[in-house]
């Protein structure tokens, strides 16, 4: 069973929820748009299910409800001080700065300091690709990954994503955490009292478990074993070490702040149109021909889901709709029927 809502109504309601947390209307609307779009594209673990936790962090000042985002630029790079902003504000801000920088540069590396949870990184790289750029983004997280037998979490699950324009088609968007499964899937399983598949997580003693609640007290397993750990290390180098000199956040924000990087490239500086577009279409057609009817490119399913949801409404699981309705009741913002 699911509840189906008009995206515009859900977006408007989410914006008003953010406003009750002292977020200015313009910023509330932008954050709501990104969160709802994540839901429309199928990022269920990083969509509306995150709203209650974001409200809690805004109300406790773990996220800054009224950030002043600043930046400094130099040849080939930009450093963004997000001032404790929600990731749904800091991410799009960084994308806009990067796309503007690409007007005079072929490539720009942006690091984001003092940033809240970015949510689905693929949404931010999608924005970059829709602006004509190849984009790669990563965010470092508190330690969450471990190999079997480790005595505790060793490194963040450090999500990473890329987006690439494909002239005449929806952009390619690939978004993964360095864990086998996102922690959000385990949170949902624990909430619903369901087990998780083997190979997802370890318990507090470093042993494999299918108990979602025990997994939440333990560590996530990396995708591809040491390969996933290696990619997590790359994100630490770019999203962690490059933001290491950032001013210390306010004490109440310390745990909620996570550094990130965003790398943007202007394709036409390297391969002029139509050569770039022709090549993108050629290799993707080879891929499709090899895979047959089941071959899909990353981002195609999300694009189709978003188009359908905008026409027919977005389907929310009943449990999530009930949670949002209760949140609205508490904040005196009536949930749309």
UniProtKB/TrEMBL annotation:
GO molecular function: oxidoreductase activity
InterPro entries in the cross-refs: Mal/L-sulf/L-lact_DH-like_ah (IPR043144), Mal/L-sulf/L-lact_DH-like_NADP (IPR043143), Mal/L-sulfo/L-lacto_DH-like_sf (IPR036111), Malate/L-lactate_DH-like (IPR003767)
One Pfam family in the UniProt entry: Ldh_2
EC number(s) stated in the UniProt entry for this protein: 1.1.1.338
Keywords: Oxidoreductase
Gene3D superfamilies: 1.10.1530.10, Hypothetical oxidoreductase yiak, domain 2
Source taxon at top rank: Bacteria
Family: Belongs to the LDH2/MDH2 oxidoreductase family.
Name recorded for this polypeptide: (2R)-3-sulfolactate dehydrogenase (NADP(+))
Organism: Paraburkholderia domus
Gene symbol of the encoding locus: comC_2
